[in-house]
């Protein structure tokens, strides 16, 4: 709105908020919003809500009009000229001189073709304000890591043709969804070799996002170096500590007498070597990371176990509606005040209803990490208070799952459903270096 020539009090209507930007591949900008404060216009517009809405509508129409080419032959004295124009919006007339351009006077572009009404900017409709679709090419999906990460590949598998948004931390990916910068987040929760990613379990409890799906991704490691570097010249190998552990036997078989050094992630390791031109250092990362950062693959498929897969979950601001027409998984977290003695009763609620548990994970209670063993609170023996994360194969649309949770609630002091979502039923095979296996790493196991 840079070409408006309105009185200065109008500026008080605009209260900018900080913009949030993302550098690449395409800039993502959150525009500032406007708030209607009571203001008195010196040229006749009152301070009531109707006049304020009318003035805002006129300002908006002026912006649209000034974006169109104007015929220089139009003068202020012409019939219907801008100087004599009196605006009327929603039945409220105002004498504000905004120099509006009459539609019939707006003419030509470079081809001397008149501008049709349907070529003007369309008004917003309720469809424009609806949330993004559950699946589709317009979704913005946040992941932790740099381009070439396994999380990026998982985001592409979960939401094909999505706009992947890299984040430097897991916490940032959660906040990106909460702040509407991203529509979804795809984050790892467990690996078949490295186990659970505890950081993300803690963040699931801290944030109010919902699990809406899962995806499993095989891991395919490669040994990368700068072009022209031979294996015998490498005296240092850098990568995420889990990647180093998953490739230790193979690195020994290759005869590498190199120091292992842990860094935050594998794709970042490849980026670091390329940026600093380190010709004595190799990285354990993906084939796609080699393409992105201009490195060569010294050895392909160097993971010690080919059956290496990471499970990712998709997070959204709103839960999905559970169904019974396909296999569903439900994730919950609970705590209880009477120590681990209640755990058997909780688990029996699922066993009695023939509900299979696929995972149980305990984490120390953040607010009450330690409790005394005896009820008198005078003893010295202590143990941790725990939060329990449980995944079970049933949909919340099933009566047996609802009854199981109703019984669990009787024995627990805290119970929360993290999500009820479709299981990933795609066929899985050991990593072979396919396109789905490309990627780097995040700051936790794959």
From TrEMBL:
One of its GO terms (biological process) is L-phenylalanine biosynthetic process. Its main location: plastid. GO terms for cellular component: chloroplast stroma. Pathway: Amino-acid biosynthesis; L-phenylalanine biosynthesis; L-phenylalanine from L-arogenate: step 1/1. Signal peptide: none annotated. Its EC number is 4.2.1.91. InterPro entries: ACT-like_dom_sf, ACT_dom, Preph_deHydtase, Preph_deHydtase_CS. Keywords: Amino-acid biosynthesis, Aromatic amino acid biosynthesis, Chloroplast, Lyase, Phenylalanine biosynthesis, Plastid, Transit peptide. It is found in: Plastid, Chloroplast stroma. Residues 331-422 form the ACT domain. Residues 140-317 form the Prephenate dehydratase domain. It catalyses: L-arogenate + H(+) = L-phenylalanine + CO2 + H2O. Converts the prephenate produced from the shikimate-chorismate pathway into phenylalanine. This is Arogenate dehydratase.
């Amino acid at each position: 709105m840079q070409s408006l020539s309105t009185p200065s009090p109008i500026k008080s209507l605009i209260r900018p908020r900080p913009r949030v930007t993302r550098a690449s591949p395409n800039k993502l900008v959150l525009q500032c919003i406007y708030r209607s404060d009571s203001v008195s216009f010196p040229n006749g517009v009152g301070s009531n809500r109707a006049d304020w809405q009318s003035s805002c509508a006129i300002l908006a129409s002026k912006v649209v009009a000034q974006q169109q080419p104007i015929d220089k032959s139009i003068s202020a004295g012409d019939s219907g000229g801008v100087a004599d124009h009196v605006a009327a919006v929603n039945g409220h007339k105002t004498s504000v001189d905004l120099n509006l351009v009459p539609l019939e006077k707006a003419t030509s572009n470079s081809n001397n073709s008149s501008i049709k009404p349907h070529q003007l900017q369309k008004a917003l409709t309720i469809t424009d304000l609806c949330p993004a679709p559950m699946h589709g090419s317009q979704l913005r999906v946040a992941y932790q890591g740099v381009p070439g990460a396994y999380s990026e590949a998982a985001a592409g598998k979960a939401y094909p043709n999505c706009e992947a948004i890299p984040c430097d931390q897991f916490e940032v990916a959660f906040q990106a969804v909460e702040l509407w910068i991203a529509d979804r987040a795809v984050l790892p929760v467990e690996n078949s070799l490295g186990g659970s990613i505890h950081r993300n379990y803690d963040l699931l409890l801290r944030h109010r996002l919902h699990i809406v799906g899962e995806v499993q991704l095989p891991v395919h490691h490669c040994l990368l170096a700068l072009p022209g570097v031979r294996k015998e010249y490498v005296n240092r190998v850098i990568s995420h500590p889990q990647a180093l552990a998953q490739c230790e036997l193979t690195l020994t078989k290759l005869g590498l007498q190199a120091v292992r050094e842990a860094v935050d992630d594998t794709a970042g390791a490849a980026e670091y070597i390329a940026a600093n031109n380190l010709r004595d250092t190799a990285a354990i990362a993906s084939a796609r990371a080699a393409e992105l950062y201009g490195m060569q693959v010294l050895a392909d498929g160097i993971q010690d176990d080919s059956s290496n897969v990471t499970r990712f979950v998709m997070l959204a601001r709103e839960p999905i509606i559970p169904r019974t027409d396909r296999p569903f998984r439900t994730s919950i977290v609970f705590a209880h005040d009477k120590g681990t003695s209640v755990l058997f009763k909780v688990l029996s609620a699922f066993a009695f209803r023939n509900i299979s548990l696929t995972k149980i994970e305990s984490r120390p209670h953040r607010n009450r990490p330690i409790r005394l063993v005896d009820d008198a609170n005078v003893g010295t023996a202590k143990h941790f208070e725990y939060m329990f994360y449980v995944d079970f194969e049933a949909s919340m649309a099933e009566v047996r799952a609802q009854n199981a949770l109703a019984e669990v609630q009787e024995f627990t002091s805290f119970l929360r459903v993290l999500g009820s979502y479709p299981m990933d039923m795609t066929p899985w095979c050991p990593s072979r270096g396919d396109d789905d296996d490309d990627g780097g790493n995040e700051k936790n196991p794959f």
